[in-house]
Design a protein that fits this description.
24% helix; 8-stranded mixed beta sheet; disordered N terminus; alpha+beta; 200 residues
Length: 200
């Protein structure tokens, strides 16, 4: 149910965001722009609630530092960083990244962040993962996607599972979090096992 700038098209309502790279029900994905590095983006990356499951939480981020990262990622085919935006108003609410991409073995990592806390638990992460998965398999012809999350990050693991990812294992005591070690949950999805909609 997504459209990708003419690369391929499925039935879907018209959306008045011509810069959208991929469109879904609640959101669309587009490139991350330097203009996105505003007070909101800065707030996300320095909010302990938002970054509690991200490795970036250990070092404060300035707007200049964030801007350099966005500039470095612009147009990078091996690490594709996309903005998650609401269809209703175009508001930038988070990011999703595909990569690093291993072009020899045709797999890639998926990671994401929903910065706006008022939009947590509304299915947005699941939809963003679904869109990037369709893109990875149908456009880039990748064979497998992988993701990892802290064992305590139940929301993230559930979002991946709803799209069809499977828990393939756990890395014991892999991360040091809040004074103790915890496992990393390892998730994966092969192209042959992917279905056309979340939860199918």
């Amino acid at each position: 149910m997504i459209e990708m700038n003419g690369i391929f098209k499925k039935d879907m309502e018209h959306v008045a965001f011509p810069t959208a790279f991929m469109k879904g029900k609640q959101i669309f994905l587009r490139e991350v722009r330097l203009s996105d590095v505003d007070d909101n983006y800065y707030r996300w990356l320095n909010d302990p609630d938002v970054t509690q499951y991200l490795e970036i939480r250990h070092i404060p981020r300035s707007r200049e530092n964030i801007g350099k990262y966005v500039t470095a990622m612009d147009g990078n085919p091996d690490e594709i960083l996309l903005a998650i935006c609401l269809k209703e108003n175009g508001r930038h609410i988070g990011n999703i990244k595909l990569g690093p991409v291993n072009w020899i073995h045709r797999f890639a990592e998926v990671s994401l962040m929903i910065g706006e806390k008022t939009l947590w638990r509304k299915g947005i992460a699941t939809e963003a993962i679904f869109l990037i998965t369709r893109y990875a398999f149908d456009v880039l012809n990748l064979n497998k996607l992988r993701a990892g999350c802290y064992e305590s990050n139940i929301g993230s693991s559930k979002a991946f599972l709803k799209v069809g990812f499977l828990q393939e294992g756990a890395l014991k005591n892999h991360w040091y979090v809040n004074g103790s070690y915890q496992n990393e949950i390892v998730l994966g999805l092969c192209r042959e096992d992917f279905r056309d909609r979340p939860g199918s």
